[in-house]
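Ligand-bound model needed. zinc ion.
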Amino acid sequence: MVRMLGGLGLLVWAQGYVPRERLVDMERLRLEVRFAPEKGIVYGLVTHVFRPLRSGVDSLVLDAVDLTIEEVRFHGQPVPFRSTGKELIVRFPAALPLDRSDSVSIRYMATPRKGLYFIGWKDPTGRARKQIWTQGQATDHRHWIPCYDDPNDKLLTETIVTFDSRYQVLSNGTLVDTVRNPDGTLTWHWRMQKPHSLYLLMIAIGEYGIERRQTASGLPLLLYYYPDRKECCLEPTYRYSVELVEKLEAELGVPFPWEKYAQVPVADYLYGAMENTTATVFGDFFHVDNRAYLDRNYVEVNAHELVHQWFGDYVTARSFAHLWLQESFATHYARFLVGQLWGPDYYHWGRRTEHTLALAASQKDNLPIVHPNPGYARIYQKGSAVLDMMRYTFGNETFRRVITHYLRKHAYDVVETHDLYQAFQDAAGLSPAEFFEQWLYRGGEPHYRVRYQPIEKGGKTFTQVMVEQIQDTAIGLFRMPITIAVHYRGGGYDTVRALIRERREVVEVPNPNKKPIAFVLFDPGGWILKQVTFDKSVEELLAQLEGAPALLDRYDALLALRKVPLSAKREALIAAYQREKFWGLRAEIAAQLATDPANQAFIRQALQDPHPQVRFAVLANLNPLPASLRPDLEVLLRDSSYVVQALALERLSEAFPRRVPQYLKQTATDLGVGHSVRIKHLEVAALQGDRTAVDKLVDYASVSFEFRTRQNALRALKALNLLPNSLLPHLFDALLSPNARLAAVARECVDYWMQQTRFRQTLQNYYQQRSWSPAEKAILAPLFDYKAPTFYQRSS
Ligand SMILES: [Zn+2]
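Prediction:
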């Protein structure tokens, strides 16, 4: 799945290194469900076909959280059962024969707070999208199906859903049929042809159109869209979908392993997207138009979930400690695919982002990647960087051979990290024990200190490079092949690839023509995940910015130049801006130069940069906004990027208050993702004393809108410090939302307002005058059930 911190979202509750033990092998699951969506009720009948793995099995224990079990039947007869609130225990009349398939059917009811979500059914105005969708990973299906809820068992699933015929019902596998019922409902029957793990089961119900495409190999793609967003959003949302499948099949050497591939956007989604087998679910904040596409689009997430159809669904981590075998691969190959679409700079830029996040995680702890709970940055970014290092260390061709072998060997099965190691042995004759030990089973990264000097030896000239590993001794030493490149003034360079393994190493790079050194690169291209301390003069940095062949080395020069005064780098930065093709470097240059309004000519040019991130960097770093640039900045009020447009409206309104009425007129019709531009517009209008703008913000905070809009509206009202009574029901609804991201913003607002006497009273009264369920009370009581401290009372 994809996590949402700036990009990709799932919190995985690690359960240990050891796979869960079980008495039976689940072979098939047949689920029949109906819903009462306004009441949030699931009516289910589930049949499990299973096979005892040991003799003497006389009962079946299933995960079942807060389900109302009505009846359990075995061989057509009711059998005794017991519910503990967490488990359902079914007793058979006698011990079952070993290895013979049998089945049990359970009729039950659920009102889940997890696993299955009813969206929009409680909107009194009828404006919200009405949907039902599921999210199984990590272990949430047990909240609405009695099941064996662990990835270590693969089974065939089929889902039979009866619902209002105006809605589409999507599930895993092939649509067997749809049957119209006398009461006007439709029954949808979906069935998987190959086994998968239960957490990958899904259902999504909503009003959708379906765009059908096909890859060259004949795989049907079903692209679900909101009918009211067909014109604006269908194409940008699913851009490159066919190409992604074809490019990935070519890279992996294994065809798409399932019968179809559907993707469906849903409202109020908790994470970014989820790779349910044959049917990915993604947040509808990715169902974007051409303008929103510029700021943030579905392409890399689309790629990430697609990769999971192999890594995660086709081969599945046997236990949570090996989750990197899914997430790191999805992260890595998604970046690989984006690089194929948009060019290698995107691939390398993505690598650097991953390195930065992985190193940041090491500030907190040094847990290894293979661990039951190593944190996001290990499973996603660090693991992805490790796969890059495998390509770097063992060669691309070997890496590809190993991966193809690994996939084929473990098709439709579960895996552990050792299976990947074994694939190196079987497919390439390699035993990369040391690599696996230092990068996967051990935590931390190397920190190299590098210095160099020219030396003469035996009449020859060398550049002597001293490398020290200065990381904590508890982390231990790393053994990696590292390239050192010595670049000379006037061009040309010499390189050496050396194995760096000791705490102190000296590498000598021959300089046969005795050329003067311009700059030295340690690990050019930045392939090794590491920290480096390597002091360079401004002159060396400027030469590196101009002459280093790899994007990331030029970027490193820019980062090191941050602390250098503008006077020493201005001309070089402006020249680099004109040269650089990749937006990331231009944005960094723009951020450094925009801090000085004296660079007006440059700023004017950068405000017209083709990439929105560069324009954003200028706008965000220009402080204050100079009146002489006002006309250039006002152009951004019509910017193609919603993010730039909203920031321009905010900053220009602050800087030039007398022109606000004109700014409001210019931005009156734009919406943005999650109504971002619209809400910024209303916030500025409210500051001007427009009461109707406040009413509109309150409406946007209501249950009639998806969570992004509600978040934006709540934040705007907090910024305005306005808490009208009409907001209270929406605020409390948001506090109680199962969507943690919405609840967090509501919480942030409540914490802020509770510090102010006038609002505290309002909030506490609202809370006390209403009745809440025990679950609601558990959330609300800690926020509102407290007494103001008393300073004058004292007990003796
Ligand atoms: Zn993922």
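Residues 5-14 have pLDDT under 50 and may be disordered.
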